[in-house]
Write a structure and sequence with these properties.
Blueprint lengths: L7 E2 L5 H7 L10 E4 L6 H10 L4 E5 L5 H10 L5 E3 L7 H5 L7 H10 L5 H19 L3 E2 L5 H5 L2 H10 L7 H7 L4 E5 L2 E8 L5 H12 L3 E6 L4 E6 L10 H11 L3 E3 L7 E5 L8 H11 L1 H4 L2
Parallel strand pairs: 2-3, 3-4, 7-8
Antiparallel strand pairs: 1-5, 6-7, 8-9, 9-11, 10-11
Length: 297
């Protein structure tokens, strides 16, 4: 979206602050896109959703109470409510109903999904990875902070980055470098397996671990969660590994595995009961080892 009245950042606990303090002052026809929030407090949010129903669009990845999801569906149209429980990111729910805006939009998706090329990361991706994290820590209107990204000119971002002191190295780098991880070898491939603290970015940790071990594949799980992220780097001289097809196969073979939204081209599975049954991760790894033909397309 190019024409935006503002971008407001709030924690979940202050969702109604936006609707009470900001939304009433917006143009009557201005669409409102809510990204990454549960409908909580439910009574207040549902009442507000009815008020703005003709211009409210909602995207989220959290688990919703069935009664809240049903109530919201009765208020918002099918093309206005997009919820992907367990995905760990609202990005696929946003991209699913959206149209591709530009090649630069694709680069931003790659940055968020840990697929960024080293070239782009060094030129401007590292700065903006850090900068977006800082923006997310402060509440209120952050539109001015992301104007450069909305314009979508990587060359301008690279020139700016070259003039500035390099930002701190991401915490994920130190975390990965200070630990050893399980490596699974099969059919000429290697797979690095990570269990990542919730405070760190799952995709970035997996990307760094693949680079550290020279492994083309990764399997990353958040501590105490049931999300499984399959990641892959391009193999020299070959086509990209098709981890999406592999995730589909695992979802078909394992009763406790569910394939999640992948509109951002990230292969995700939800392994029910993983925290209570950690051996189910070995089931997933076994299916990966059996799926070489799918990887190679």
């Amino acid at each position: 979206m190019r024409l935006l009245e503002g971008i407001w950042v709030y924690p979940q606990s202050e969702l109604m602050t936006f609707f009470r303090s900001v939304a009433p002052d917006l143009r009557d026809d201005a669409p409102i896109h809510v990204v990454g929030f549960r409908p909580s407090p439910a009574v207040d949010v549902l009442r507000t959703a009815q008020l703005y129903a003709n211009r409210l669009f909602w995207y989220d990845h959290h688990d919703w109470a069935p009664e809240d999801l049903g109530a919201m569906r009765s208020v918002l149209s099918q093309d206005a409510l997009h919820v992907a429980p367990g995905a760990g990111s609202s990005l696929p729910t946003v991209l699913g109903p959206s149209t591709r805006r530009s090649r630069f939009s694709d680069k931003l998706v790659d940055l968020a999904a840990g697929r960024f090329t080293q070239h782009d990361y060094e030129r401007w991706g590292r700065l903006w990875w850090w900068r977006l994290g800082e923006i997310a820590k402060r509440t209120g209107d952050r539109r001015a902070d992301v104007d450069a990204l909305l314009v979508g000119r990587p060359s301008d971002l690279a020139r700016e980055s070259a003039r500035l002191e390099a930002p701190p190295i991401p915490e994920e780098v130190a975390w990965v470098s200070q630990r050893d991880f399980r490596i699974v070898h099969f059919a000429g491939y290697s797979l690095v397996v990570l269990v990542v603290p919730a405070s760190l970015d799952l995709a970035l940790c997996a990307r760094i671990a693949r680079e550290r071990y020279g492994a083309p594949l990764s399997l990353a799980v958040p501590e105490g969660g049931d999300l499984v992220l399959l990641g892959a780097d391009e193999v020299s001289g070959k086509r990209a590994l098709d981890v999406g097809a592999l995730a589909d196969q695992i979802g078909e073979k394992l009763a406790h595995a569910e394939v999640l939204a992948d509109d951002d081209h990230v292969a995700r599975l939800r392994v029910r009961g993983l925290a209570e049954h950690p051996e189910r991760l070995d089931d997933v790894i076994g299916e990966i080892a059996m799926g070489r033909s799918l990887l190679e397309g």
